[in-house]
Specification:
Layout lengths: L6 H4 L3 E3 L4 E3 L5 E3 L2 E3 L1 H16 L12 E4 L7 E4 L5 H8 L23 H14 L23 E2 L3 H9 L15 H4 L39 E3 L4 E3 L15 E3 L8 E2 L3 E2 L3 H5 L7
Parallel strand pairs: 1-5, 8-11
Antiparallel strand pairs: 2-3, 3-4, 5-6, 6-12, 7-12, 8-9, 9-10
Length: 283
């Protein structure tokens, strides 16, 4: 397999999570010889990530912003900061999603929804080829299968990768928070039916990046549209879900399902240069 291009060559906007922190004992991290409490490290992590996502790196019309996630219970990987948008999907695939459900007219910054698992896998292969990367799925037929997790192209996250990224190494019930009363700040969920009504101005799906991100600056990991994983399950809940149904430990197997509340985000393995910048966390 040829060496993957680095982020500059591939044209992807990549956020590198700080890699100089290695977890020590008792929830304390060692930082260049200094021992700091976890809450200080977490604050500095968020500040550093914010600075790196605000550097103005160019994101092309097909290319999502990618966030590099250091490994821990899973190997390191890069994940799209948002769900794949209607604009990204249409430009690459030449059409709106072909799922058998009706969509209201939406702008390019809305997440692509009504997507089957197969359509999401085909998008990954198409994007890989457009970047000159070896596709991760064996073919584009009904029996598309993952060739290898270490492939250089784009793919759907495994269920374990998805949950690891959503929690951002914290034992949260929802992406960004553990408090039921603050879920509406981070997620687009069903309005006025849950214990804590979310009156956010969006009665159905919302454009991406309308809510707070989690600690790794990933948006809409909870709510908006549920997301396909490589395991052919959907995670995260959607705008159609009550708060209780968007918990990060919830999943639903539905390999052929297509619905207005289902979309996806993508991952890829780190490039060689990205790997050199990482020090993975201990499991």
């Amino acid at each position: 397999m040829k060496t993957p291009p680095n982020a500059k060559t591939s044209g992807l906007a990549t956020t590198l999570l700080p890699a100089r922190w290695v977890q020590g004992l008792g929830g304390v991290l060692l930082v260049v010889g200094l021992i700091l409490p976890w809450w200080i490290i977490q604050a500095r992590t968020q500040q550093a990530v914010h600075q790196q996502t605000s550097t103005g790196q160019e994101v092309g019309p097909l290319r999502p912003e990618m966030v590099l996630v250091p490994g821990g219970i899973v190997l390191s990987f890069a994940i799209s900061a948002t769900e794949i948008t209607q604009g990204q999907y249409q430009r690459l695939m030449g059409q709106r999603t072909s799922g058998a459900c009706e969509l209201p007219k939406q702008g390019e910054d809305f997440p692509a929804s009504c997507v089957t698992w197969l359509e999401a896998a085909q998008f990954c292969n198409m994007l890989s080829r457009s970047e000159g990367l070896w596709p991760c799925y064996g073919n584009d037929g009904d029996d598309a299968s993952l060739t290898i997790l270490g492939c250089e192209g784009y793919r759907l996250p495994t269920s374990a990768e998805w949950e690891y990224a959503a929690r951002a190494r914290m034992h949260r019930s929802y992406a960004g928070t553990d408090d039921d009363t603050s879920v509406c700040d981070y997620a687009n969920v069903w309005n006025d039916t849950a214990a804590f009504a979310c009156r956010d101005g969006f009665t159905t799906v919302a454009p991406v990046k309308q809510y707070k991100p989690n600690a790794w600056f990933l948006y809409d990991m909870t709510g908006n549209v549920a997301e396909w994983t490589d395991d052919r399950t959907i995670r995260g809940g959607s705008w159609q879900s009550t708060i209780e149904r968007t918990r990060l430990d919830a999943s639903m197997p539905a390999p052929s399902l297509s619905a207005p509340g289902i979309g996806f985000r993508i991952v890829r393995s780190p490039t060689a240069s990205e790997r050199r910048s990482l020090v993975d966390y201990s499991p």
